[in-house]
Write a structure and sequence with these properties.
Blueprint: E1 2-9, H1 14-24, E2 33-40, H2 46-59, E3 64-70, H3 73-76, E4 82-85, E5 94-95, E6 98-99, H4 103-124, E7 130-133, H5 138-149, E8 155-158, H6 161-175, E9 182-183, E10 186-188, E11 196-198, E12 203-204, E13 207-208, H7 209-213, H8 216-228, H9 230-238, H10 244-258, E14 267-272, E15 284-291, E16 297-299, H11 307-326
Helix pairs in contact: 1-10, 4-5, 6-8
Bound molecules: ligand NAX.
Length: 331
């Protein structure tokens, strides 16, 4: 049996809880791969994490190998193939008597966490390790981690698959098609309300989704707003942020990197910009991606970008440049 070492931070959180069974069940890496889990949490929730560990044992998954719990990222990151960085400090938490509401403060606090995690993974995780940042602000956290990881063989990504799945669900409802009929969905930019879900280049039966829908007002107002604000709508409805769908999107992203992407499709995640589509280098930006037969991930090139789409892409680019400026002392 093959083995894979997977690290999950924030493992006792709500996304972590939904994620662990799906990593351990054999669904993600295949039934012929044993999954060893290194679970990382802050010491305050060690008991909660132990509860999750016991539950995992009790699932009786054949694919589950060793489960280890850590509070030290350096100890946890040895020989890791895949790291899912879910843990971060949420907006609104009170630290040292101060309620953290400002984006700049949130960026700095989480930036400290991702500096340490980046260094640890860069030094201790395997060459070719893949790292997916889920914890918000995901793109800039990934930028900080990647900078401090300083390991060109490793791939850092920030998750936009949840936004992509949300966009597909809205299109499926609108066009009355199955989700699997919708291909080539791109989320450009930041995992934030400035993200741009692109229906011009998304396809159903090889036809552009925006051409098929042929309703500019729905696409530019209803659709855009629903997708960009979906996270908030879920918090308003549940009194808690997305967990099952977020964990599912993380699994989708991992799976998308494990085998060659189908000819008629691509997947969405944020990676380090190499200047494609005139996005400045040095920010982690949502692009259309493909995995090749050797497991390398590349940005799909030469897609047409309308003037309207370019304006939206410029907006989300500017937000990421502003976030980068806010954490410049951490880079
Ligand atoms: P929870 O608050 O339930 O869990 C977060 C966990 O992280 C907590 O158990 C906490 O103890 C742990 N943690 C904090 N600092 C840590 C550190 N330094 N090392 C290890 N663990 C640490 O949040 P949850 O709902 O699970 O969400 C986790 C993160 O995902 C949040 O930042 C959230 O904003 C973000 N999201 C990102 C999404 C995306 O698409 N990229 C969508 C869903 C989600 O909102």
């Amino acid at each position: 049996m093959k083995e894979i070492n997977v690290l999950v931070t924030g493992a006792a959180g709500q996304i972590g809880y939904a994620l662990l069974t799906r990593l351990a069940s054999g669904e993600t890496f295949g039934k012929d791969t044993k999954v060893n889990l290194n679970l990382v949490e802050v010491p305050q929730v060690a008991s909660k994490l132990e509860g999750s560990r016991m539950e995992l044992e009790d699932c009786g998954f054949n694919a589950l190998g060793e489960i280890k719990s850590f509070s030290d990222i350096n100890e946890a990151s040895g020989d890791i193939d895949w790291a899912l960085l879910v843990g971060s400090i949420p907006r609104g938490i009170t630290i040292n008597g101060k309620k953290i509401e400002e984006r700049a403060d949130l960026l700095k606090i989480n930036g400290g966490i991702f500096t340490e995690q980046g260094k640890a993974l860069g030094e201790n995780a395997k060459q070719n390790a893949k790292i997916l940042v889920v914890g918000n602000p995901a793109n800039t956290n990934a930028l900080i981690g990647c900078t401090h990881g300083n390991n060109s063989t490793q791939t850092w990504m920030a998750m936009t698959a949840l936004d992509s799945n949300r966009a597909k669900a809205q299109v499926a409802n609108k066009c009355n098609v199955a989700i699997s009929d919708i291909k080539k969905m791109t989320i450009w930019g930041n995992h934030s309300p400035t993200m741009y879900p692109d229906l011009d280049n998304a396809e159903i039966n090889n036809e552009s989704v925006s051409t098929l829908i042929n309703d500019k007002s729905w696409i530019e107002k209803d659709f855009l707003q629903i997708v960009q604000q979906r996270g908030k709508a879920i918090i308003d409805a549940r009194g808690a942020s997305s967990a099952t769908s977020a964990a599912n999107a993380a699994i989708d992203t991992v799976k998308a990197t494990l085998s060659e992407t189908a000819e008629d499709d691509w997947f969405s995640a944020a990676v380090m910009s190499d200047g494609s589509y005139n996005v400045p280098e040095g920010i982690i930006f949502g692009f259309p991606l493909r995995t090749n037969a050797s497991g390398e991930i590349s940005i799909v090139q030469n897609l047409p970008i309308s003037e309207y789409a370019q304006d939206k892409i410029n907006l989300t680019t500017q937000e990421l440049l502003d976030e980068k400026k806010d954490v410049s002392d951490l880079l």
